[in-house]
Inverse folding.
């Protein structure tokens, strides 16, 4: 067993030997490049996440299902953003049959509103629920790490069905 005094001598010897072996390195004369991963897109299905809503089967939906959200309902999706921080565009892919007044959708990223808009009809009262349209749902600077996207629905004739959410870097 090495005593604490012997430990200090051994440590001093190791530091001196490393310094001599490395030739006392000096600061680099060239700038050091820092490499970031490029910003990457993320996407998730409407029916994933947590909160309100009902899952509906839809043959033309990206995974065969949608998330049905009515007035006063809200859904949250947690996701991790890989790559370097960048400005991202958020898109909602959804269906909304033509039956009456359209809903107001509020999109928040990490608790900050990035968009509020009235959804559009995607078709008639029958086929409209299986026809999907894409609307811009805001843009935001998003850093690398964990985030939460929230969608709140208000008013309208009763509901909107979310198929997919896409978050893509701009540029």
């Amino acid at each position: 067993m090495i005593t604490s005094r012997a430990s200090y001598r051994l440590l001093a010897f190791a530091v001196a030997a490393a310094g001599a072996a490395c030739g006392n390195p000096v600061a680099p004369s060239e700038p050091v490049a820092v490499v970031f991963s490029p910003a990457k897109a993320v996407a998730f299905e409407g029916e994933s996440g947590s909160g309100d809503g009902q899952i509906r089967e839809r043959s033309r939906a990206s995974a065969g299902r949608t998330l049905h959200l009515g007035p006063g309902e809200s859904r949250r999706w947690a996701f991790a953003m890989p790559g370097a921080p960048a400005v991202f565009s958020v898109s909602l892919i959804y269906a909304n049959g033509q039956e009456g007044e359209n809903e107001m959708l509020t999109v928040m990223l990490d608790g900050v509103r990035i968009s509020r808009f009235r959804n559009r009809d995607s078709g008639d009262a029958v086929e409209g629920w299986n026809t999907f349209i894409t609307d811009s749902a805001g843009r935001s600077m998003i850093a690398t790490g964990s985030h939460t996207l929230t969608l709140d629905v208000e008013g309208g004739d009763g509901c909107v069905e979310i198929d997919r959410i896409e978050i893509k870097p701009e540029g």
About this structure: Residues 4-22 form the longest helix (19 residues). The two ends are 62 Å apart (CA to CA). The CA atoms of residues 45 and 164 lie 4 Å apart.
